[in-house]
Amino acid sequence: MEQVLLVTGASRGIGAATALLAASKGYSVAVNYTANAAAAEAVVSEIRSGGAKAVAIQADVAQEEQVLAMFAQVDKDLGRLTALVNNAGVVDQTARVDAMSVARLKRMFDINVIGSMVCAREAIGRMSTRHGGSGGAIVNVSSAASRLGAPGQYVDYAAAKGAIDAFTIGLAKELAAEGIRVNAVRPGLIETDIHASGGIPDRVQQLAPQVPMQRGGTALEVAQAIVWLLSPEASYTTMSLVDVSGGR
């Protein structure tokens, strides 16, 4: 059976690495992006050059109608979904909680939590044996911040990722008898562009000495854990929160 994967936020970083690695293992991949069409098309073209099928699909996961349109496009262009990676996420400028606006908090949870839950809902309707599907796998991208708390920087982000951890545990139990496995990876300090959007482009270098392995990780190192969790090799693994954090 053809394996059809949707990766949200797949134009860069962990999402792009996951899309490329999964394609190399035979998945047809929908590469979701919010704004950077050129970056998403570059990922698609690299996948196609390796002989796999891929499409780029624009959608803001915080907008339900755009999520519905994205899943409809996956159905049309690639076929019935068998795997979802909820990777789309944002950080904001570093701040203490006493300086955070409600607008910031709503954006954080709309994208990082509600967006992931709505994408999961749509995936379940296509994958669950209860709905006539043949099963599948969901991997949520959480963060080591969910257990570290990110004080003085991103407590709102850490709280959103804590919600993702709880969502992963509950959803895994809910779907275990319907052929769908649900797991999360919790990356630590990873060398991606997300730090620049938080105003600290050299954050990995600054904090590397705090990591027992004394370095940041790569997007590929996280992608390898995600793709394993999606694969039949992880057939008895569900409800797991896998730390990819160098010991931090």
Structure in words:
A seven-stranded parallel beta sheet has the order 3-2-1-4-5-6-7, with helices on both faces. Strand 1, helix 1 and strand 2 form a beta-alpha-beta unit. The protein has helices at residues 13-24, 37-49, 64-77, 102-127, 145-148, 155-175, 194-197, 203-207, 219-230, and strands at residues 4-7, 28-33, 54-58, 83-86, 136-141, 180-187, 241-244. The relative contact order is 0.15. It is built from nine helices and seven strands; from the N terminus they run βαβαβαβαβααβαααβ. The chain has one domain: Rossmann fold (3-Layer(aba) Sandwich). The protein is globular, with a radius of gyration of 17 Å. With 248 residues, it is of the alpha/beta class.
